[in-house]
Amino acid sequence: MGGGTHQTSVEGRGASGVYTWEEVQKHSQRGDQWVVIERKVYNVSNWVKRHPGGHRVITHYAGEDASDAFMAFHPDQTFVRKFLKPLLVGELAPSEPSQDHKKNAALVNDFRALRDQFKAEGLFRTSPLFFCLHLGHILLLEALPLALLWYWGNGWINTILCIFILATAQSQAGWLQHDFGHLSVFKRSRWDHLLHKFVIGHLKYGIKKLKHLPYNHQHQYFFLIGPPLLIPVYFNIHIFQTMIQQRDWVDFAWYLSYYIRYLSCFVPFYGVFGSFALLMCVRFIESHWFVWVTQMNHLSMDVDYEKHDDWLSMQLKATCNIEQSFFNDWFSGHLNFQIEHHLFPMMPRHNYIHAAPRVKELCKKYGIHYEVKGLWEAWCDIIR
C-alpha cells in the first residue's frame, strides 16, 4: 500500500503499515506517540512509562525521527532492538525522505559516518587507568582533611580549609557519578530526576514541553534556587525518593554507608551537630560548583524554542565548549567539552579531546557555529 492512501490507526495492522511523515507527525500527543528509527515506525505509546531511560527522551521525539538519539544513548543496539520489535507498526513510504522537517540529509549522513569512525577507533571504550587515577585522587582529597584535623585540630582556619578540600573531593566524585549515569546501559542517571527543575539535559526543551520553572524565566530564580539549593536540598530529596520508589536497596545501602563513614570520621572532632553543619557547608559549596560548571555551557545558549533541527545542529545551538586546559578539564570534569558530551553521551570523557577537532571540522564544512569560550567569559554570560 502507498503512503497517504490508508488510515493511520494501528489496530489489526501489525507491522505492515507504510506511512508518510505527515501521518507519523499526527502521533505526537500524550497517550499516542510514534517515533521513527532508521525508517522503521514504532508505536511507543505504552512503552513510554516503562522506558528505563525515562519518558522525557521518547516524548521529545514523538512524531519525529529519533534515530540519532537512539544511537546516542544505546551502545548495545542489538539488545535494545529486542524491545523495539513488538512496537513496530510499519515503515516510511519509499517516496519519503529519511529525515523529517526537511533536515539536511548530507549533514546527517556525515555526522553518522563520523560517529561510526569514532567507534571504529575505540573512542567509545573507557580507560580503566583514567578512572582508577581519578578515584584515587578523590580518596586522597577525602583523607587530607582528617590528617589536618588530627595534626592541627578543629580551629576555624583549619575547618574552613577542610570544608573546601571536602567540597573539592565531593565535586570530583560528582563528575564520577555523572560518568556512571551516562556510561551505564539501562541504568537511569540520578541527575535525570532534577531535569524538571533545571534545564541541563542533552535534548531539546521547547517551551511547550517544559512545565516546571520554565527555562525562559530561569533568570528570575537561578541565583536564589540553583547554586545554593540544588545539591543540599533537591538532590538529596530526589535521590532518596528514587531509591525508595524503585526499591533500589543496594544503592540505598551505599547511600547510607557514606553518612556512616562521614560521621564516624568527623563526629570525634566536631560532635554530631557540628558534623552535620560541616556537611551542609560542603554541600553548599559543591552545589555552587556543580551548577556554575553545568550552566556555563547552557544558560546563555539558544534552547528556548524547538526548531526540529538535526541532532548535530540542535546540540550546537544548545551548548558551547569552554577552552581546553589541564585546570579546566579537571575543574569541570571534562564538561568543558560539552558539545562532544551532548553529541556522544556514551563516550568516556577522557576521549572528548580527541573527538573535538573533527567535530569542529564537520561544523565548519556545513557552516554550523562551533562556539568556544573562556571560563571567565562563560561565567560572566551566566550573570548577564
TrEMBL record:
Record's Gene Ontology CC terms?
A: endomembrane system; membrane
GO BP term, pick one: fatty acid biosynthetic process
User: Where found, per UniProt?
Assistant: Endomembrane system
Q: Which PROSITE patterns would you find in this protein's record? A: CYTOCHROME_B5_2
**Pfam families, sorted:** Cyt-b5 (PF00173), FA_desaturase (PF00487)
Keywords from the UniProt entry: Electron transport, Fatty acid biosynthesis, Fatty acid metabolism, Lipid biosynthesis, Lipid metabolism, Membrane, Oxidoreductase, Transmembrane, Transmembrane helix, Transport
Q: Which InterPro entries match?
A: Cyt_B5-like_heme/steroid-bd, Cyt_B5-like_heme/steroid_sf, FA_desaturase_dom, Fatty_acid_desaturase
The record's GO molecular-function terms, alphabetically, read: oxidoreductase activity, acting on paired donors, with oxidation of a pair of donors resulting in the reduction of molecular oxygen to two molecules of water
Spell out the PANTHER family in the cross-references.
ACYL-COA 6-DESATURASE, FATTY ACID DESATURASE 2
The lineage's top-level taxon is Eukaryota
Domain (Cytochrome b5 heme-binding): give its ranges: 16-93
**Functional pathway:** Lipid metabolism; polyunsaturated fatty acid biosynthesis
The entry's family comment says:
Belongs to the fatty acid desaturase type 1 family.
The annotated topology with respect to the bilayer is: Multi-pass membrane protein
Q: Where are the transmembrane segments?
A: 129-150, 156-176, 221-239, 259-282
Gene3D superfamilies associated with the record: Cytochrome b5-like heme/steroid binding domain
Name recorded for this polypeptide: Cytochrome b5 heme-binding domain-containing protein
